[in-house]
Amino acid sequence: MSTSLRPDNLRAALDAKLAAALNRLVELREADQPRATLHLSPREILGEFFHYLREVYRIADTFGRSEAGELQFNAWSEQWTARLNDIDRVLWKRLRDDRTGKQGADLIGVDISVPSDPAVTIRESLPGAGTAVRKQLIRFAAYPNRAASDVCEHHLELAKRFAQDFVRDHARFLPQDVRTVD
């Protein structure tokens, strides 16, 4: 990422990463459904989702260090993290860890039986072919009873809060028309 992010591009850059993460969350919600979704790879979606959320921090980090200075940004970041509740603090630290969301990191598979896709006719032509197929859902090892998309939604909300607070608290470095994040 460039270290010369212009102040008038900060909000657009943060919004773009949050929107991309939201798009991956929508795909993950579809993959979490108890139906055949052969076109979706939950592990790949998770990797992309966490990449975009980590980019939110990296953009703020780069901008904060260049505009406010390293000491001031570090102090702000530590104070922001300290204000989080224990659950969010753990999620935030895991979110910033580059290993989060990569292939196999803290993920488990849960096999379920789902109705076969009626659009796929090859199974119907095979003698003895069943009407159900096996599907593997992805779960976080720490939350085996929660859909991965539910856990990711919490991560996305935390990243949105970080972006909003960052823009609010660093508004003096921004042009008037980009000082708020929706």
Strand order of the largest sheet: 1-2
The main sheet comes to:
2 strands, antiparallel
Q: What is the terminal separation in angstroms?
A: 23 Å
Mean pLDDT: 81
Helix-and-strand structural type: mainly alpha
Number of helices, counting only DSSP H or I runs of 4 residues or more: 6
One letter per element, helices H and strands E, the order comes to HHHHEHEH
* Contiguous runs where pLDDT drops below 50 for at least 5 residues: none
Q: Please tell me how large the radius of gyration is.
A: 20 Å
Structural shape? elongated
Q: How many E-type strands?
A: 2
Strand content: 5-15%
Q: What is the share of helical residues?
A: 40-55%
Summarize this entry quickly:
With 182 residues, this protein is mainly alpha-helical.
Structure keywords:
single chain, 182 residues, mainly alpha, two-stranded antiparallel sheet, 6 helices, 2 strands, 54% helix, elongated
Give an account of the 3D structure.
The chain is 54% helix and 10% strand. The chain has 6 helices and 2 strands.
Lay out the secondary structure.
Elements: H1 10-31, H2 42-67, H3 70-82, H4 86-96, E1 107-115, H5 122-125, E2 132-140, H6 148-169
Antiparallel strand pairs: 1-2
Helix pairs in contact: 1-2, 1-6, 2-3, 2-6
